[in-house]
Design a protein that fits this description.
Layout: H1 8-31, H2 34-44, H3 48-60, H4 64-69, H5 71-98, H6 107-110, H7 112-115
Length: 130
């Protein structure tokens, strides 16, 4: 496994954020009343989950409601959100193609150019930077 000490701040920050997020969500859940807890358990594993996922994609990536109010502002928001999404997804896909293991540490896609400096013979090498 390729490892350098400069990824430690990234890993420590990510670990802190994930632990803090898990702690906060757990705290929120246990502070709810019995009726609310039951509604969450019932609603989370239902057919409504797919409608909620569709709403998440349409609002967080496509910014559908902002488009209705202002076309230019909606296009700007969608471009930024979709661009970051593609950077994350394509960077992860690129690191999975070039690394020998199926599971990579979370810092590999972010610092991929540092860890993998060789010229690749992959047929679609030009599509990833594009």
């Amino acid at each position: 496994m390729k490892f350098d000490y400069f990824v430690l701040p990234f890993l420590l920050g990510m670990a802190f954020l994930l632990i803090y997020l898990a702690f906060t969500y757990t705290l929120w859940y246990f502070r709810l009343g019995k009726v609310d807890k039951k509604a969450i358990r019932k609603g989370f594993f239902s057919i409504k989950l797919f409608a909620a996922l569709k709403e998440i994609v349409s609002e967080s990536l496509l910014h559908r409601k902002i488009f209705r109010k202002n076309l230019l502002l909606g296009f700007m928001h969608m471009s930024l959100a979709f661009g970051w999404f593609l950077l994350i997804v394509m960077g992860n896909l690129e690191s999975r193609i070039y690394e020998p293991t199926a599971m990579n540490p979370p810092y590999v896609p972010i610092f991929f150019k540092f860890f993998n400096t060789t010229v690749h013979s992959f047929p679609c090498i030009g599509s990833f930077p594009f």
